[in-house]
Task: structure prediction
Amino acid sequence: MRAGERFDVIVVGAGVVGSSIAMALAERSIRTLAVDIDLSGRLSSSEKNAGGVRATWWQRVNILLCRASIEYYERFRDELGFRQKGYLWLYNDETYASALEHIPLQRELGQAIEALTPAQVNRQVPEIDKLDGIAGATFSPNDGLINPNLLKEHYRARALKLGAQFLDRAYVVAIETGASGVRLEAWQSDEPLTDAGLVRMMTQDGPGEAETGRMIDLSADSIVVAGGAWSPAAMKLLGIRNWTEPVRRQICLVDNRVTNLGAYGMIVDTSGVYFHNEGAHILAGYSPPDEPPGYHFNYDGEPFFENEIWPRLYARMSCMERLRHVTGWAGLYEVSPDRSAIIGRAAKRVYEAHSFSGRGVMQSYGTGQALADLIADGKYGALDASDLSRDRFDRGAQVWEELHI
Ligand SMILES: Cc1cc2nc3c(=O)[nH]c(=O)nc-3n(C[C@H](O)[C@H](O)[C@H](O)COP(=O)(O)OP(=O)(O)OC[C@H]3O[C@@H](n4cnc5c(N)ncnc54)[C@H](O)[C@@H]3O)c2cc1C
Result:
């Protein structure tokens, strides 16, 4: 970056979403800078997720954004570690009817999905041998799993090749919009931040006394807020209303020496536990409904496995009797009031893409393309995300999604 260089667009946050936006802007020859306090993403949700990708949602706009992403991931299948082995979703009596109601829309938009009886579930996945409480299931073969880190690096590599720039170790602390553009102040760390320093930054909304750095000025015609769970702080700098809460989600890796689930994609149980094969292990997650909002990153460890994961897995599959906890981690969901992302123009010169509510990896490509069209042309192109603009909350036009996992 040259001193005093002015950009067309500055993207605040370079997780999987900000990186996709940077790529899409660069594809349209828009001079772009993406700024992040930690490009390695140690606390970012893009590093902490389960890698699930599906287009079988309940709302048209969410299906379309995911569908566009999947079409792209199919083109780079090996590079992105995209394993299209499907989503198998088990429902109880309370939830099955709603799941079935949405199949016609999913099919209308080109998504393959079938309903299964409990006996068919057992035939398809013989490891699921305890069928109590399963009213039925859906299986969508074109959904699957991706390596989110490879995806983010893919976006960045392509963005860089097309001329976008990425600024590391810089935290945006002030944003001022005016008639001639947007001025940002960022605090840039002299050294790579320690883990503790990064946690301090990201939980206290700025550098603590222990961190040394200097202020830098940045300027652009427009900005995009793509700060994941930290987007509320950026919106506050802009004086724009925040709708979103960060909520901790935990995942663990377990060792099961007798079972290999490698033939299947994501499986979601009636109990809310979701799991899939991850290398030599099984990755399993569960999101307690009473988790309080906040910037909490502590992983509960063995008790999380013992209390939340193992009982649910073993209640469904005998082969899970002798599981061993290996490791785990916690990351943040950024949850909006209707559990759909907030995407679009937030104010003059200000765009936003955040609050993905557990869907940011699978919507990242579609979001980047849609938003870049809006910025370049002043209107959406092939992908119209206008249903996800923030004014839907004022208009009472929520885009409600069940938060399954
Ligand atoms: C346990 C778990 C499981 C999940 N499973 C899935 C799944 O299966 N499929 C799926 O699609 N999604 C899943 N998600 C959600 C998904 O991970 C997120 O929606 C997605 O990663 C959001 O990407 P992002 O780029 O918006 O945010 P992030 O990856 O969090 O990136 C935001 C970046 O912005 C930077 N930043 C923020 N503010 C500033 C600032 N002021 N200055 C400088 N930098 C700033 C941060 O450092 C960070 O790097 C899961 C999430 C969790 C926690």
Summary: The longest strand covers residues 213-225. Residues 87-142+246-335 form a domain with the D-Amino Acid Oxidase; Chain A, domain 2 fold (CATH 3.30.9.10). The chain has two domains: 6-48+149-242+338-395, 87-142+246-335.
